[in-house]
Amino acid sequence: MNIQISNLDFTYPNGVHALQRVSLEIRAGSRIVLLGQNGAGKTTLVKHLNGLLKPSRGDVLIGDWNTREHSIAQLARRVGFVFQNPDDQLFKTSVQDEIAFGPTNLKLDAAEISKRVALAIEWCGLENVRDAHPYDLAPWQRRWVAIASVVAMQTPMVVLDEPTTGQDAFGLARLAALLDEWTRAGVTVIAVTHDIDFAVEQFPELLVMAQGQVIARGDASVLEDESVLERAALDAPQLMRLARGLGWQETPVTVENFYDVLESHRG
Fold first, then answer.
1. CA 179: distance to chain centroid?
2. Is 0.85 topped by the overall pTM?
3. Which structural domain, as residue segments, surrounds residue 265?
4. Are strands 31-35 and 79-82 parallel, antiparallel or unpaired?
5. Kind of pairing, strands 79-82 and 157-161?
6. Within a domain: residue 181?
7. What are the E-state strand segments in 52-99?
8. What gap in Å lies between CA 267 and CA 159, rounded to an integer?
């Protein structure tokens, strides 16, 4: 199912106009990342996808559901959401019970719940802590518990708010592998991140926001536009900056691409 956002405006009770006339379509199975400085409207936008926020003006459609007409609980069947702070969504007394909570609410049978929990634990590397209390874990592990609880729901859409925070190289590799698993399964993945290097390496589509508006959308080449970077208060990815410093016309975004271009210049 697709996501259709039409003329979306949102104003917080304190008067902050966080979104202004946002219109876009996200096709089923897309893998897209939202970039921009704090206050650009990224998290406000994605919170409209599962009904945490309702439009001040305009409409958000998740498939054929208008979010105005459905509860958060109903929308949770279509959109899994991993919060920026995982502590905002963890409340059970064991990792296994936390992961099982969503599928249990779907009233699935015990065998299916067990299967989903086992898969989520495997994908998220939680085998050794499945019986632990989530709040006895390190912050980076709690983030993986929150991610696993969404994996177990098997929703057709997933939103990840700052998923790379606190992750080391092994965690980033595991996250990249999980993104690939979701893509193979046809899941729509929408992420918000300040990690621009991870963003351009792992997401084929970028959406750049500034002052509550979408100012650019496309592949990593949109970040070659200095006016976009300046307006969004973003730095270009490291490899792009290095390529420019070397005087290259090419702008690689992965280490593999960089070495390929390097070899072509040596040859």
1. 10
2. yes
3. 237-267
4. unpaired
5. parallel
6. no
7. 57-62, 65-66, 79-82
8. 43
